[in-house]
Design a protein that fits this description.
Helices cover 23% and strands 34% of the residues. With 189 residues, it is α+β, with helices and mostly antiparallel strands. The chain has a five-stranded antiparallel β-sheet with strand order 1-2-6-3-7. A two-stranded antiparallel ribbon has the order 4-5. Helix 2 packs across helix 3.
Length: 189
């Protein structure tokens, strides 16, 4: 029987958890110290808050907006109110592009370097370049470009007691929002 040192097992487990965390959407939780990854709020008045929810690169816009509404509803109930209305709501998209050169054909000394082949035809050597003149390193066809999107939703909410205003499309019954959105958002493990 092979025994693994406890330290090796713990390092492997930590690495697996770290990789797993990178591939999952932001759970419904308070935001961390970096500001990304959950909800945050600030009291402005007795019945008014600024609320935000931010996600990582695999959190959809819908999940971010549901997190914002759920946190708004929870704050409303926690403060003894029945409904809330958004007095301005926005969802921001942070888009970044990452370019990674193809490591097999990249040459740090010359952007014009690239593999080439020659073949003999009718007694003379000809050049054959599978990428064409513009497909070589340094011209962009050998670069992998990825787009990373992150969403953050924020709103100012005003809370009230009694039935929600009937003619206000920005007003929400807090308990209905909790009942409908609460089960749809993943919680931290």
């Amino acid at each position: 029987m092979t025994r693994f040192p406890a330290k090796s097992v713990m390092i492997a487990a930590a690495a697996a958890l770290t990789l797993g965390a990178c591939a999952t959407a932001t759970p419904y939780q308070p935001a961390g110290p970096s500001g990304y990854g959950g909800y945050a709020e600030q009291r402005l008045e007795a019945n008014r808050f600024r609320v935000a929810f931010s996600g990582n690169s695999v959190t959809s816009r819908d999940q971010v907006e549901m997190g914002l509404l759920l946190r708004s509803a929870e704050l409303t109930v926690q403060n003894g109110f029945d409904w809330f209305a958004t007095a301005g709501r926005a969802t921001d998209r942070d888009t970044r592009f990452y370019a990674t050169p193809d490591p097999f054909y990249y040459d740090r000394y010359s952007p014009f370097w690239g593999p080439s082949w020659r073949y003999s035809r009718a007694g003379s050597w000809s050049r054959w370049d599978p990428w064409g003149p513009w497909g070589r390193p340094g011209f962009g066809r050998d670069i992998d470009i990825r787009q990373i999107d992150r969403f953050e939703a924020n709103a100012e909410i005003i809370m009230g007691r009694g039935p929600k205003p009937a003619n206000d499309p920005n007003a929400f019954d807090a308990r209905d929002v909790i009942d409908n959105l609460g089960p749809r958002l993943a919680r931290p493990m």
